[in-house]
Amino acid sequence: MARIDAFLKLGLAQGCSDLHLAVGVPPMLRMHGDLMPIKFRDLGATELEAYITEVLTQSQLNQLRSGRDLDFSYVSSEGGRFRVNVFRKETGIGAAFRSIPVQMPSIDQLGLPPIVRKLCDYHQGMILVTGSTGTGKSTTLAAMIDYLNLTRALNIISLEDPIEFVHRSKSSQVIQRELGTHLPSFAEGVRAAMREDPDVILVGELRDAETISMAMTAAETGHLVLGTLHTTSATKTIDRVIDALPTEEREQTKSFLAQSLIAVITQVLVKSPDQRARRAVCEVMVVTKAIAKLIMTDQTHQIPSQLQMGKDYGMQLLDQALLGAINAKEVDPDDAYAYAVDKRQFQRFVTDIGILPKPETVGT
């Protein structure tokens, strides 16, 4: 058994989502969003490097010694599965282990809005799941792929970095390919997937102009494309895609978004009232004719008003979703306040008045 498995076992037993290892501090566990140290000595550079290298293949070890970061999946001796990032910094090696649940989550179990299931019924176009790092984008996409796998007979090609949830083919065929292991880049993976008779292509991250361009081409040519971006609202997502591509392609990109973008789901993870779990709260934008017109006329700043009025289409602003979750007693109001855009309407729910802004004093 690798020595690092003892830390991972402890984290799993306590329901933690992540294990962080760095030189000069003890191992850290993330519990429901908060980081806390394990009762252990501060890790030395040589000690930590020995822990990490025990779980690396020779190829991975060579990459690390050449100065490259590593992204890979790891199965511990206890059977837990983890997404791993290993990196070097000023004081030495570091690593983050993200726990991947053994049980495939469903759309209902994640508490996602009902519109998410309807979006999976589309046959062509692009659906983006966005949010900051660690907000559960990969889990939401896994639930959507599982729903498609259960309900439709499709050829689903999933490009991931690394492979997290392992899908078993059910009604559909699910092919999972890993960056660095099976393909050199997401862009090359999409290019290859389009020659493999796909119905659905999942792109783990639209991280550069070439990948975004290839994903757009796939969506325009009869495929359903699912992908992620590290953006924190529907409006910012639209602007990010437009800005990511060359200026001379701006009009073409806006036309794609207006015609082929189906929806943007932006999510945050908010603590439950008892602080023992977190649940996804989502902003949802469905591209209607009105929103398409705003995109084409460079008026994306008006998109939030369309979301606010778009309940019949399954749309909602993040603040609307947070208020609904507070009223349903599904989230902690203090944590919801931290994520709110317009915090004034959340102040009446806050229980810790210390997080509220101090009233301004008027000088005499």
Brief write-up:
The chain is an alpha/beta fold and 364 residues long.
Characteristic terms for this protein:
globular; alpha/beta; 13 strands; 364 residues; six-stranded antiparallel sheet
Describe what this molecule looks like in 3D.
With about 375 residues, this protein is α/β, with parallel strands linked by helices. Helix content is about 35%, strand content about 25%. It has 13 helices and 13 strands. The chain has helices at about 5-15, 45-55, 60-65, 115-120, 135-150, 185-195, 210-220, 235-245, 250-260, 290-295, 305-310, 320-325, 335-340; strands spanning about 20, 30, 35, 70-75, 80-90, 90-100, 125-130, 155-160, 175-180, 200-205, 225-230, 260-270, 280-285. It has a 7-stranded mixed beta sheet with strand order 9-8-10-11-7-12-13, with helices on both faces. Strands 3-2-1-6-5-4 form a 6-stranded antiparallel beta sheet, with helices on one face. Strand 5 and strand 6 form a beta hairpin. Helix 6 runs parallel beside helix 7 (about 210-220), helix 8 (about 235-245) crosses helix 9 (about 250-260) and helix 9 packs antiparallel against helix 10. The longest helix is centred in the middle third of the chain and has 15 residues, at about 135-150. It is globular. The model has no long low-confidence stretch (mean pLDDT about 95).
